[in-house]
Design brief:
9-stranded parallel beta sheet
Length: 246
Amino acid sequence: MEQDMLLRVQRIRRELEEAAAERWGRAPQIIAVSKTVEAAKVNAVREAGITRLGENRVQEIMEKLPYLDASFQIDLIGRLQNNKVKYIIDKVGMIQSLDRMSLAQEIDRRAQQHGLRMPVLIQVNIGDEPQKGGIPAAETLSFARMAAALPGLEIRGLMAVMPNLNDDDELRPYFTRMRSLFDALKEENIAGTRIEELSMGMSGDYLLAAQEGATHVRIGSAIFGSRTYAAPAGQAEDTLKGDTHS
């Protein structure tokens, strides 16, 4: 099974290189989305050169962290409740889901307590979908200016979860618009920012993302297959009660 995962990573890398090379000159980096995947299985992808993981829930990060290869960078990619920031502020390498000013202020406060400057991506609700988190596209630059003034944050770029569309022609404009927003943010050259990452594309649409200028793609099931997860033996199931949306 581990060999199958390594072969899948190799195939995905080839596909990303073919999709992105002509237009962008480089393939996006893979962030392996390891939610609900047990730590032993996650650790196996390190052999394939995967260095970054994407986790959705604070609870699961806390449970799995002691069992994960210490060389992984863990990115929080799910929606983050303000009252959960304190648990992961010194555990993750990046928060990709900054979607409101109250969260920016809490990250700033907790980061300063730990002497940190937390790298963050601004999540953009590119499809204007009410059920999803994210800053409206039209407000992205103004939000970035406000958040960049907080000394505990370093804005590194943008993240988006695309609408659930099966037609590539319908989906592509959302990726294109995200790349345009990313370029506009970079050109703003806002003090305190280092705009390098455009995180978009998942298992079903990573080739489109690569074609349209993603720097990072978040791929889970295409690497790990079907998902099952149980807390490691001895780990509490209710450490962070109510942690259902982080």
